[in-house]
Every structure is written in C-alpha cells, then in structure tokens.
Amino acid sequence: MKCFLDYVTWVIIIVFSIYMALRFRVYLGKEAEISFDNKQIMIFNLIFPIFVGILLRLPKFLKEKKGKKKWRMDWIKLIVIALPALYFLLLPYLSYSSFGDKLVFTNQILALGDTTIMFTIIAGIVFGYVLTDSVNF
To answer: 0.70 exceeded by the pTM?
Structure first.
C-alpha cells in the first residue's frame, strides 16, 4: 500500500509541476508579444524538457540515493545517449549561428517542419532522464 501511495504522490507532483510550468510558458508568451523578445521562451523551451526528464527519473533516483553508497558517474551512458540528445535539443537554436549550415543533421531535422519541436522535446526529456540515470549510487 505504501508503494501505491508513493506512486500516486509522485504522479501528482509531476503533473502539478508540468501544469505550473506550462502556465508559466503561457505567461512568457504574452510577455514576448508585448516586448518582442523571444529569448525567455527559447530558454524555457530548452530547459523545460530537461526538467521533465529529471522529474520522471527523480523517484527512482531518490530511492537509489537512500542506500548511501559512494556515487559514480556512468560516462558511457552519458556520452552515448545524453550527448547526442543534447545535440538534437540544441540543433534548432544552433542552426541560427554562423556555423549552423555546417552542423550534422541540420537540414534533416529542420525539414521536419512542425514536428521539429516534438523531436527537440523528446530529445530534452531523454537528456534529462539519462543525465539523472547516469549518476549511480
């Protein structure tokens, strides 16, 4: 029964956090319309999926931390999974830089059109999850 209550509590915390973050996103959108400055929305769009990925892994991370073992970093998982996910998360923003046309997969990802945002959100969630998962106790 305790395990069930733990899961319900975490679901409520995660859903509430995502709800509040999306409300904040709407507020940033209104502010951007007034000030014509999209930097805050761009930063939010980068950080929010990472935050969701960390939130999804946080319950298990805290359970593992209770063991109080010496922590270590799984560098292979971090390099093989998290680094490419971070690259794909940053790719739409890096494409506007002076070297954007030289980046690998730029044309393919941006050719996805409206689904580019979904691709970057998924990459951000994967990055946040793997980032939290690669710290082992």
So the answer is: yes
